[in-house]
């Protein structure tokens, strides 16, 4: 069953990000022009301070990633010396030990990346680009290589609860407009950009796009490398 956007459980801060369901929808059509417009407005819109959120574990996760990469680098560097140093162990045993050491370190680094990938270091509520439009939210996460990924969600109604471990929200994969918004149903078969992920230079590297069907139902898909899951401290958003 498709999630009804107006009926899901949200906390007080999350509710403040959403517009009333009776408001006229302000959509971004999937096109090159839309992406260009979003990039130009990326650095021009400044939120009010009361809507800024900072993740308290940002520095901790940053150090954890650095430690994980350092451990992997040292393990990969030292492992070849196991074949140079004289030992009673046969070559097959040395190869097994080196493989286990590198594989274990690489696996732990991958786990750290998977756990910390959705963690939101900062969240901002942006005023609508046009009067009466939809407030946008902007969330910053960091990749395993410590590169910032800024995801701007153009309609917070597409942000729902998630069952993914170490995450609280996700971009909805299937949606259905509530009855109150049925007069503004998009044309079936049309596609619109719901969210975009940008790098530190403001270049769009991924998009979350909805394709509308009949009765206001839509199915979303990703284009490029878009951040879909987000981990926030809900108790700090109230």
TrEMBL record:
Question: Is Ribosomal protein tagged as a keyword?
Answer: no
Query: Which Pfam families does the UniProt entry name for this protein?
Result: TMEM70 (PF06979)
Q: What's one GO BP annotation on this UniProt entry? A: mitochondrial proton-transporting ATP synthase complex assembly
* Tagged with keyword Transmembrane helix: yes
Q: Which UniProt keywords apply?
A: Membrane, Transmembrane, Transmembrane helix
- Give an example GO cellular component term for this record: mitochondrial membrane
What InterPro entries has UniProt attached to this entry? TMEM70, TMEM70/TMEM186/TMEM223
Q: Where are the transmembrane segments?
A: 66-85, 97-116
Q: What's the protein name? A: Uncharacterized protein
